[in-house]
Each structure stands twice: as C-alpha cells, then as structure tokens.
Amino acid sequence: MKNKYIFFRTDRIGDFLLSAILIKSIKRSDKNSFITVVASKKNFKYIRNIDFIDEVIQFPNNYLYKFFFYLKFFLKKFYLVGILDGKKRSIYFSFFVRSKFKILFTYKKIYKKKLKYFFSDIFLDKNCNDKISEILKLLNIIGLNFLNTDLNTINKDLVLKRSFTFPVQKKFTLLHLDEKWIFKDYIKTYQSIEPDNEENFFLFLEKIILKTNTDLFISSGFIDNKFTYFLKNKFSQISDNIYEFKVSNFKILFFDNLSFFELEKLILCSECLIACHGAPSHVAASFNTKLIDIIDTSERIFFKKWTAHFRNYFPIYRINFDKLSTQIIGELKFKE
Q: Residues 94-108: what's their mean pLDDT?
C-alpha cells in the first residue's frame, strides 16, 4: 500500500519552490510514497511540470466547488497532511481527513494555541531560525533524511530540453527587470531603487558588460514599465518579443514577456542572475546559479529565513539606484 502524502501550497511559485525541497526529500527517501499537491491558480501549471510529484490539484475558487472538493476527501486516509501555506481554507481540509501525521506551518501564534489538538505538530515561524531547519525537523519527525542534492528541486535536463525562440550559445549575465524595480508599481514602503532616468539605466547596462565581458540578457515581468518601453524603442526588434542592441563586441538582448518556463531556461544557462527577490531567486538557488538578490531592509529577517539554504548567494539591500548599481557592479566578476 502506498504512503499517501498531501501538501497544500495554494499561493505562489516562489513559496512552492521552498516547499519542493521537503517534497523532493520525501519522494527520494520514501520509495512507497504517493505525493499530491493542492495548488492555486497561480502555481498550478508550474507544479504540474515537477517530476517528483504524482498528482496536482487546483484548489477551486467557487464556493460550491470548494464544498465538493472537501466532500471528495471526507474521511479519506493519508499518511501525512502538510498545510504548508498556513491558509484557513487549507486548514479546514485537515479537519475532514484522517492521517498519521498532520503538520501545520504558520505565522499566526493564535493557531499554535487553538489548533494544537488538531495537528501532530505546528511549526510557528517566530520559533524557527530559518525555513530549511523547519524542513529538516519535519523530516526527522517522520523518520526520513535530507541530502544536499534535494536542494536541486528543478530538473536541469528537462529544462534544457525545452524549446526556446533564441539559441543560447554561450554564457551571459541575466538581469530580471520586473515591477519590483519601479517604485510606484510595487510596495510603496520599500526603498525606491528606480533609476533616475533612462540614460543612467543604460549606463548601468553598459557597465555590466564592461565588468563581466559577457553578453547581457534582460528579462521582464508581466507588467510593462517605462524602462521596458525604453529598451523596446532603443533596441532593434529581431523577433516577436526579442530586442537587440550591440555594445562593442557584445550585445544586449531584451526578452519581453517570457513565460516562466522560458525564464527558467535563461536562469539555468546564465552565469549570474541579478534580480529583486522573488520566484526567479528560488530558481537560481535550485540551479546553484550565482544570484545577486535585491531585498528590502524592512524584511531582512524574513528573507534571511527564506534564503538560508541558498548557495552562491549575494544579497544586496535596496538603496538609491546610484549606490545600488555600484554595489551590483562590485559583486560581478571580471571575465578574461
């Protein structure tokens, strides 16, 4: 009989990629496991492509469908139920099913107090030094082990096999230019890192090339901003969503509105990723790609917990663009 595990990760891709370390460890250690992940609309398609997960279910948004979702699992038996997202809708599910282990990860102290009789163990964020230690503790509870290779949650071979509109022939530096760079488009309590003007921004791009002696690839988020418009106007369009600009013997390529799967392949093939912290950061960590990760000082403790397992990792705090760009250039390696 299979050991049935079900995990709830009804939030975003980056959150899932941390939990994927736990799930991969279980899949490797328990040869008799069958693993189901309940996902959100935002991460369902992504999780469905993970090779060590047996089943992915999208949590319904409609109230009637939610009722039938809970009913479908009523009194079913699992080996372990893991509420990794800490959401009420996921916690409710744990009341409907039987399992040997019921585990809850939460930021809410009140859950630790009120729900202690419903769960085998409750991991309160405040009590942990970092997220990887929580994973190790859970594995220890269920008698399974962890290997460093479990950090490599994304299958490199599968990523390399994916078709891509542009042939990647040599190493490059990758700059991920999403909405987190634009002050008014993102969290307004964060320190602004927005470049003062297009000229300063482009000078920064040239400095990256001069420091690294490599081509520079730029990817974008799903929201256009004045700097992505600037790149499209300044560069030559060479395909539907790829723009090119030549600098000496090198080139800058701007990839507009890539899918996340395409972005994964660029991260894998790059020498270094420069990005504001998010899902691409976790992808780089899985590939052990050098990562210059831009984070806000207001959440330094939070990010330290989430990145403690990152390798080849260089965090930089958000600061005005002139100083930030200087720090980024300083972290880049000169290539002969």
A: 95
